[in-house]
Give the backbone structure.
Amino acid sequence: MTKKIKKTNAARILDGLGIEYEIKTYAVDENDLSAVHVAQISGLDIKMIFKTLTARGDKTGVIMAVIGGDDELDLKALAKASGNKSVEMVALKELLPLTGYVRGGCSPLGAKKNYPVFLDARALTLEKISISAGQRGMQIVLAPKDLVKAVDATVAELVK
């Protein structure tokens, strides 16, 4: 008998849109929440794992960037893509109040508000990508074009 996985808001949003996805669960290591570690313990390829970073633009306010798990966000590229002069990462203490998510469990789906989402263009070269399902220890695997559709993402070159 398989254990029933409790659906997250992110999964319910995809259900409501009729988007196919798979949920992958893994044991959480509170000492290492990195995407590289998630790849090691989940059996997913690091190239398909995408992390969601929350930033604030000087003109737009809060925005989300979804980039490869082992990539580094280029803040200037994100600023340009989002129509801002400058962008900075939000402080960790602001993440939960702004998004409803904790570090290591932040999803571009189902945040407290529908913040603009920017997806790194490399995602579209992959058949499937993996994003946080909205809680630590749970990933959603889906086609990148379906993520674009679900969050009305802007696709741009976002990494260094």
